[in-house]
Fold Adenylate kinase.
Amino acid sequence: MSSRLLLIGPPGAGKGTQAQRLSQALGVPAISTGDIFRAHLRDETPLGKQAKAYMDAGDNVPDSLTNDLVRDRLSQPDAAEGFLLDGYPRTIDQVRALDELLAESGQAMDAVVELVADPDVVVDRLKKRALEQGRADDDEAVVRHRLEVYAEQTAPLIGVYAERGLLAKVDGIGEIAEVTERIASALAARGILFTA
Ligand code: ADP
């Protein structure tokens, strides 16, 4: 059974953590555009140099760069039978690009998991992560800006996927394992079965 899934939710909702766990349980790669961009930044590649200013400011990297990157990643053999996208798409233009890309190979998304988390909780979580991991974009002012960008550019995608009947809303607050269980039951209700 193929699983083509995506995780959507504000910064700090726990998408990365859940994506790792789900990817293992489902046997499909977790593809995080944020992680891929951070690797480019670290390696100082041309793409990393182009993305840096946007990322440091908490703005979205331009769609054209992001869409090319995802097209390249999804064409790799490990994504042929399924994937779990984390942090992509995050604009309407990216939804369009993903739709096109999947249609070209006769594929379609199976489900979209929205991780719901209160802005105050996510700001607290990201403050902690700033201390632990030192991510430049976890500075409080930048976090607030990322939340605004999410509300303006990404939150509208939830309605788009709800209209397509793909949306599973899951409460992202709680123990890590508990949230994974909630995602597993929301997906089971849509016929996507695995042991969390
Ligand atoms: P978070 O979801 O916590 O904000 P991510 O690791 O997903 O963190 O993203 C970090 C940064 O990487 C974003 O603020 C943005 O600059 C860039 N980025 C990641 N994914 C995308 C995307 N799909 N489109 C544009 N920019 C992106």
In short: The chain has one domain: 3-187. Strands lie at 3-8, 30-32, 82-86, 111-116, 167-171. The first helix runs from residue 15 to 26.
